Amino acid sequence: MYRNGILEAEDFPVADVSDHLLDPDATVWLDFCAPGEAELAAISEELGLHALAVEDAVHEGQRAKVDCYDSHSFLTAYAVSMDGEVLRCHEVAAFVTRQALVTVRKDEAFDIQAVLARWDAAAEGAKSGVGFLLHGLLDYVVDGHFDTAQALDDQIEQLEDLVFEDRPDHTWLQRRSLQVRKNLVHLRRVVVPMREVVGNLMRHDMRLVDEAMQPYFQDVHDHVLRASEWTESLRDLITTIRETQLNLQGYRLNTIMKKVTSWAAIIAVPTAVTGFYGQNVPYPGFQQVWGFWASLVSIVVLSVGLYALFRKRDWL
């Protein structure tokens, strides 16, 4: 519990929340990790939370959003991180009243200590009450979106370099490109709705963001827009890489086919000449030494001529 921006109480019973909120200068933060509806019943009673909001806070897989009720607002957001090659999403819900913020984490993977560290690092803004706490939470979430977009951007740059290798591993590239694209789809799913979330929280009729916190929320909103635009551009880029890979595969296949066809044509020359001189009927030079040399010269001249022609046309 904060009073006038100063931390005054910690680890008090949920039943004391309503008593603290009788003081208009008090701001309360409560945090739950993977609670059930029964566990949220007490705070729901204390703050008058809507049953639908409580139900959404318990069930996983909600869309990032802000719902407004008479006495409070309810928001859902996702922190993201890279676990090796796989994108992990960590859902957090929050009940927001004029004097209280209740966070509901779906699992321990959501690093609430990092949020606390942000609050402690900017303690001078605590006088703004719930707006200050909400900004720290959203700032942590959006910064995670940025870091993940940067990590995926680095992975895409590596794929770009590998695509143009002389002997790329096409199977690995296809699998890796698909994984990156899936990660970008998941990232877009949690990043794009955040534009609406932050924009709604900044509305004057919400009365959550005072003049002191308005620039900070505007900064978060700008970061959300940049993260969503970055995600969209990365999706286009990974699609371009995939198309480039397929085009290069087709180009290399055509090059190989041209070489094989050219060599087949060259090999066909001695086959044709020796086949002609292998007839069972008399022909010019039949059973004569000069006939052997004539056939040999024909083979060499025609083969060299074809080789030079194919080299000139860049077929070999």
Automatic annotation (TrEMBL):
Q: Which cellular component terms (GO) are annotated to the entry? A: plasma membrane
Q: Which family does it belong to?
A: Belongs to the CorA metal ion transporter (MIT) (TC 1.A.35) family.
Where mainly found? membrane
Q: Which GO terms describe its molecular function?
A: cobalt ion binding; cobalt ion transmembrane transporter activity; magnesium ion binding; magnesium ion transmembrane transporter activity
User: What protein name is recorded for this chain?
Assistant: CorA-like putative magnesium transport protein
Places the protein is found: Cell membrane
Segments passing through the bilayer: 260-278, 290-310
Q: Which InterPro entries match?
A: CorA_cytoplasmic_dom, CorA_TM1_TM2, MgTranspt_CorA/ZnTranspt_ZntB
CDD domains per record:
TmCorA-like
Q: Which UniProt keywords apply?
A: Cell membrane, Membrane, Transmembrane, Transmembrane helix, Transport
Name the source organism. Saccharopolyspora erythraea (strain ATCC 11635 / DSM 40517 / JCM 4748 / NBRC 13426 / NCIMB 8594 / NRRL 2338)
Topology term for the membrane: Multi-pass membrane protein
